[in-house]
Design a protein that fits this description.
By secondary structure, this protein is mainly alpha-helical. The protein is about 70% helix and about 0% strand.
Length: about 260
């Protein structure tokens, strides 16, 4: 689904491009009436009708590029849901192991045991932090050089190998999901950059082109058409006739989403 910033610009671009094509002959005729008396021997009037059409086509082409870039970015955003859901599900499993491990170590060996295994802090929620904590805990559990103190009760001894195996089973899925999300984030940044560039180009060509067309219509004695194609000074990529009292004073050319 196209973003509102783009659909608003598309509406204005379509209207101005159509006006340029529809009224090109009238613009040319108006220029002829207004300026032909000033033509000197050997001079000819420029083809202002063709120029109006070309300006309209450029506005339409740059806007079409923006619409395509916006669709690509929206598609990229929609692709994020699956990888993020997989990441969160995998993170929950790793966190469950770490929470159980921390609880068991604290009950059996107290704060000393937590410190030795790197579990002194509360178990994080952030998936990236969980992955790092999981790898660290896994290494500590498998490190024979780390000797835990005597448990409070003989029957409370923690099975370090079993917890290490649990982490070995759960960590790969989280690491894979984190890598996928990172790839999606880079792709999203890429499509956002392309969209921002397309929007900047659209706004520049629209403002310049629509301003030229409005001035041409004024010279040709078509003030009513000039009013319809004149670019807004408040909202980039929009025509002035669509301005309203509630519109913001300015609108950023780029933007999120």
């Amino acid at each position: 689904m196209a973003s509102k910033q783009v659909t608003d610009r598309e509406k204005s671009a379509r209207a101005v491009a159509a006006a340029a094509e529809t009224h090109a002959s009238q613009i040319a005729a108006g220029f002829d009436r207004a300026l032909s008396v000033h033509v000197r021997p050997g001079e000819t009037l420029p083809d202002t009708g063709l120029l109006a059409r070309l300006i309209g086509r450029k506005i339409a082409a740059d806007n079409a590029a923006l619409v395509a870039a916006d669709r690509a970015h929206e598609q990229e955003l929609s692709d994020d849901d699956g990888p993020r859901e997989d990441r969160d599900a995998a993170a929950a499993k790793v966190r469950s192991v770490l929470v159980d491990l921390r609880g068991a170590v604290e009950s059996s060996y107290g704060s000393r045991g937590l410190t030795l295994l790197g579990l002194g802090d509360a178990i994080a929620v952030d998936p990236s932090v969980l992955a790092t904590a999981g790898v660290s805990a896994q290494k500590a559990l498998n490190d024979a050089k780390i000797e835990l103190p005597k448990p409070k009760r003989a029957g409370m001894m923690v099975n370090r190998a079993a917890f290490a195996l649990d982490l070995t089973a759960e960590l790969p899925a989280l690491q894979k999901a984190l890598a996928k999300v990172a790839t999606e984030d880079r792709e999203k940044e890429g499509t956002q950059r392309v969209k921002n560039e397309a929007m900047a180009k659209n706004d520049a060509s629209f403002t310049q082109g629509a301003d030229y067309l409005a001035a041409s219509c004024q010279v040709a004695g078509m003030s009513d058409i000039a009013a319809k194609v004149r670019p807004s000074g408040r909202r980039p990529g929009r025509v002035e006739s669509e301005d309203d009292a509630g519109a913001p004073a300015a609108e950023p050319a780029g933007g999120g989403g």
